Amino acid sequence: MGLIGRYDEQRKLNGLIYFHRVSDPRFGGQASRNVKMFRNLCATNAYRNIVVLTTFWDRVSMEEGLMREEQLKSTFFGDIVTGGARFMRHDRSSQLSALQVIAHILMLAPTNLQIQEEIRIENKILEDTSAGLVLREEVERVLEKHRQELASLGKEIDTMKQSNESLKKELEEEREELQQHLARWESEKAELKRGLDNSLKSREQLVDQYRSVDKVRSATLEILQVKVEEDKKTSEMMVARMNEEATVHRVYNTWNNEDDLIQLTYSDNYPPYMKTIPVDDRKNPLSIFNFASFAETTALLFIQPNLLWSKLRNLAPDQMMLDKNMRSIEAHNFRLHTEARLRAKTDPNARDMYFSKNVGLRRDWYTDTVFGQQQFTGTNPTIITLASSRWRDEFMSVSQAQGRTDVTKLLTESSGNIYVQDYSDYRPSVGLSPEDEIVCQGRYGCSAVALFHLEPEGQLHPLAIVPDYKGSMGESVAILNRRIASDVKGNKYEDWPWRYAKMCVQVSDWLRHEVAIHLVNTHLVEEVIIVAAYRCLGPNHIIFRLLEPHWSTTLSLNKSARETLVPKIIVGMIGLNATQAFAFVKAAYERFDWKGLYVPNDLRSRGFPVESLNEPKYHNYAYARNISQMWNIIRKFVARVLESEYVGGDREVLSDVSIVDFCDEVRARNGGELTSFPEIKTLDELIDCVTMCIHIAAPQHTAVNYLQQYYQTFVPNKPSALHTPLPKSLLDLRSFTEEDVLAALPLKQPRDWLLMAQVPYLLSFEVPEDSTILHYAETTSNSKSTLDIIRTAAGALKADLETFIHTVEQHSDDLDDQQTPYLRYQF
Predict the structure, then answer these.
(1) Which residues of 196-205 are buried (b: 16+ CB within 10 A; e: fewer)?
(2) How many alpha carbons lie under 13 Å from residue 662 in its C-beta half-sphere?
(3) Residue 308, pLDDT above cutoff 50
(4) Which residues pair with 385 in a beta bridge?
(5) Residue 687 and residue 696: Cα distance in Å, rounded?
């Protein structure tokens, strides 16, 4: 029931609770606006009914927490405290603090809020209330910003009259567009005002009708009063229920499955996920993503392509480039990067997706060398695999049919160094037959297979590509590289059939990376672990204490992915329709192999034995070299803690009922449905499992996330879909020219181009300093409230990570490619 409904029923409020994390290092602009809105909602007469409840006290030292609490009281909530509000603290490890808050509120004299009286007594519409004025100020601020931009453009035109006439014309056009936008805003504002006035008249008519039946209402008052006593009893019962619901506000103080407060829900589209995210775990997207990037991505979803304002539209190449060449796109990319850097010198907040360097700035971005290296240190360095005999045989038949004896000889004599990127499972994963096209609304997907030779010096050289595998080589088109080795010379830039084939591989990998490797294998798998931990492990259980610090934004990010990223963004960027995309998500989850993806097991199964990674042949596979050592560091930390906790070894682990329940919950059909999750019976198995949980949440996620902007903002390097049908025969493919490759890019669809460039920029935010494992180790090792065995182990973890920084630098220095920013590996 809303506030107005309660007012009409003459039901007053006992209290209001304002939640604030004492662990937040800053009181930012959004927090200030929230308090301002809250203040105008209540007014001074209701201040005595307010409780400012501070949370997350276990994330800061008591000294720091007291200092922040005092600052909040004296500065940001000063007038509210003076008016009678009370500051209280919530302890995550006990129900007592929640009960104390409820008890305090129930003792307060009920009151009405200012917004209730403004609407009902003063007959104000929502826009004219004190709280509504805050929103109006925000609208006026936006309008003023447009006016200032318009004035700024006018000044810019005046100063440039004597220079570039073409630029002057462009600025005038942009000013005209801004004037149109401003006029539309003013018109919409006036229309909104007229609508509100009409609404007020309608409401006045309803008030007259309401008064006419007031006598009838008065007659029923006595009947309602009879129910007061019943309501009183009901409210007493609700107190107990509120005690349960309070746990949904943070860290789930009730660790009892029977309460069903923490539970999974199920859908046909996604793996199991948390039904309700607690209030304090809900993160606003603007607190996670870059604001400008988030706003521009949102705009792209709802604005028709022909209505894109020039500032945004100009970030995509002009359609006239279809009549030009790839060099024009490269030049356009360089110009956008240069302009972004210049703007940032005067306005650091003006950064866009082109501010940072991208692969398109490299003169050699299109080469086999850069393409091969991306399999080792690109956005998805996790699936390159030693080719099975099946793939070697299939490609050998292709080389024989095409008369390429050099390829046949290499496949025969160097079978232990032939690797594959295999996306051949796409059609069966989404319910398509081999002959079906992968297409949706003019966007074409593909199911590529690429073969590589790992040369003795460590270069990963592409040998052959099937742009779209259709169940067999006989039904598919396969093309062989004209250059058998990385040192063979030739005109690589104008080898358009081969460049197109490599682009098909990148399209296939875009889907595997974003949906399976990134979304499913890190985010969605981690969510099942989080829910199982909350349901089965108490807050003081050693496993929960080890894992909980690594879950800061996961639940909110996953919710955004399910509600927005996949259905409203990803589906509109790929060659699959919504049903097929959801099937792809579910198939990836069902294939997730928990123990098989332990780093040592995974690397070995893919043909990269951990013990051999320091050999010269593997020196370019920096991901494998870094992640294998990172696994060992995390495992050493986990082992220190668990060996101290489970002094009885395997027997004590086996007798821990909470661990048994935890494993069952993750695997169960009515639980996490992650059937590959192990039954833990030994201490070693428990150490591996906990190591995997931290690995997924931190270093693995970083490895597949932060380079997206670099490799994908330049769309020709890695588009999410093709915009022309794929060739039906090798003859068709061999006839491909530059025009065909350009036509496959979304040059005629500026919104599609911008989404392909913008989404990687939105998603590839760097790990905040206070969210890294190194920061965790530093703060945990210095926290007096941390369990001794964890604090001691965290000190050793910190030392290991600081040493590891130099190892990462050395691995980067070892790379042949010194242009790729892999040095900034974060953990």
Answers:
(1) eeeeeeeeee
(2) 25
(3) no
(4) 420
(5) 14
Helices and strands in the chain, H and E counts = 34, 12
Containing 421, the helix (H) or strand (E) segment is: strand 418-422
d(Cα 281, Cα 590) in Å, to the nearest integer? 27
- Using CA atoms, how far residue 699 sits from 550, 641, 704, 825, in Å, is 11, 20, 9, 9
Q: How far apart are CA 739 and CA 297, in angstroms?
A: 29
DSSP string, 683-748: HHHHHHHHHHHHHIIIIIHHHTTTTHHHHHSSGGGS-SSBSSPPPSSHHHHHT--HHHHHHTS-TT
Helix (H, G, I), strand (E, B) or coil at 789: helix
Strand partners, 440: 443
Partnered with residue 716 across adjacent β-strands are: none
Question: Which whole-number Å values give the CA distances from 102 to 52, 105, 106, 357, in the listed order?
Answer: 13, 5, 6, 54
609 secondary structure, DSSP code:
-
pLDDT 10s digits, 687-711: 999 999 999 998 998 899 888 999 9
Half-sphere exposure of 725 (CA within 13 A, CB side): 6
Could you give the CA distance from residue 205 to residue 233 in angstroms, rounded to a whole number?
38
pLDDT digits (tens, 9 = 90+) for 177-226: 667 656 665 665 566 566 545 545 544 554 454 444 344 344 434 434 44
Which residue, among 163, 49, 160, has the nearest Cα to 113 in the 3D structure? 49
Token pair recorded at residue 187: 């018109």
Domains of the chain: 3-120 (3.40.50.300), 371-503 (3.10.450)
Q: Under a CB-based contact definition with an 8 Å cutoff, are residues 262 and 274 in contact?
A: yes
Question: Within 10 Å of residue 536's Cβ, how many Cβ atoms?
Answer: 24
Q: How far is CA 586 from the centre of its chain?
A: 18
Q: In Å, how far from its chain's centre is CA 215?
A: 57
How much is the mean pLDDT over the chain?
83
DSSP state of 476: S
Q: Is 453 helix (H, G, I), strand (E, B) or coil?
A: strand
CA–CA distance, 242 with 57 (Å, rounded to integer)? 22
Entry pTM:
0.69
Q: What is the pLDDT of residues 56-102, one digit of tens each?
A: 888 788 888 898 889 888 888 888 898 899 999 988 777 788 888 88
The CA distance from 605 to 8, in Å, is 68
Question: Distance between CA 306 and CA 317 in Å, rounded?
Answer: 14
Nearest Cα neighbor of 537 from 251, 242, 264, 244 is 251
